[in-house]
From TrEMBL:
PANTHER family: DEHYDROGENASE/REDUCTASE SDR FAMILY MEMBER 7B, DEHYDROGENASE_REDUCTASE SDR FAMILY MEMBER 7B. One of its GO terms (molecular function) is oxidoreductase activity. Belongs to the short-chain dehydrogenases/reductases (SDR) family. The keyword Oxidoreductase applies. It is an enzyme of class 1 (oxidoreductase). The lineage of its organism: Bacteria, Bacillati, Actinomycetota, Actinomycetes, Streptosporangiales. Its EC number is 1.-.-.-. InterPro entries: NAD(P)-bd_dom_sf, Sc_DH/Rdtase_CS, SDR_fam. This is SDR family oxidoreductase.
Length: 218
């Protein structure tokens, strides 16, 4: 029987790299991202189902859940960096912080809620991508880090409430992605890990299916 995964933020970076790993292992994939053109190219490459849209849109979340009535793996990878250049908390625009919470915390929870029946039926797994900014006091990263800390605790509680599932909150470490380049500059980002290498470690985690918990990949 073929496994099915739903991956958000799948048009680039870690989401794309993981989609390639899973597709290579024969998984069926439902992929989403905001950029329709890039997502359609990825889906054509991998033979996946592409459903472009914004994960903060409840109607889009419902479309994703309907597209995966049988689901073994949900990967909440889509996230937003927030205001750039990264501002100190003393001057963080509160409306921008509310939007960041909606994208990085509320949207993953909404998708978990929408797909739980399918995940429970399959005794499946949830991967929530977090960050070392969730715990480290990095100047300028307070807004983003606070949302990732919230996602980690959400994951922690979910793992206790859904013992038949596997729930992993995964810190992938610094990767050479557009998001990191937006935060620290392209030159520094280029020295970070290749997302494909990190995705290989994440694929090994999914395959090994260890107990629920926090996982650092670098």
């Amino acid at each position: 029987m073929t496994n099915t995964a739903l991956i958000t933020g799948a048009s680039r970076g870690l989401g794309l790299a993981l989609a390639r790993s899973l597709a290579g292992a024969g998984w069926d994939l439902v992929l989403t991202a905001r950029g329709a053109a890039d997502l359609e190219r990825v889906a054509a490459e991998l033979g996946a189902t592409a459903i472009p849209g914004d994960v903060t849109d409840p109607a889009h979340v419902e479309r994703l859940a309907r597209a995966a009535p049988e689901l073994d793996l949900l990967v909440n990878n889509a996230s937003d960096l927030g205001v750039t250049p990264l501002p100190p908390l003393a001057g963080y625009p509160l409306e921008a912080f509310r939007v960041l919470l909606e994208t990085n915390v509320t949207a993953p929870l909404a998708l978990i809620q929408a797909t739980l029946p399918a995940l429970r039926a399959a005794r499946g797994a949830v991967v929530n991508i977090t960050s070392d900014a969730a715990t480290g006091p990095y100047e300028g990263w307070g807004g983003y880090g606070a949302t990732k800390a919230a996602l980690e605790q959400l994951s922690n509680v979910l793992s206790a409430e859904e013992p038949e599932l596997r729930v992993w909150w995964v810190d992938p470490g610094e990767m050479n992605t557009r998001m990191l380049a937006d935060a620290v500059g392209a030159e520094e980002a280029a020295a970070a890990a290749d997302p494909a290498k990190v995705a290989a470690a994440l694929y090994d985690l999914v395959s090994a299916r260890p107990a629920s918990g926090k996982v650092s990949l670098q």
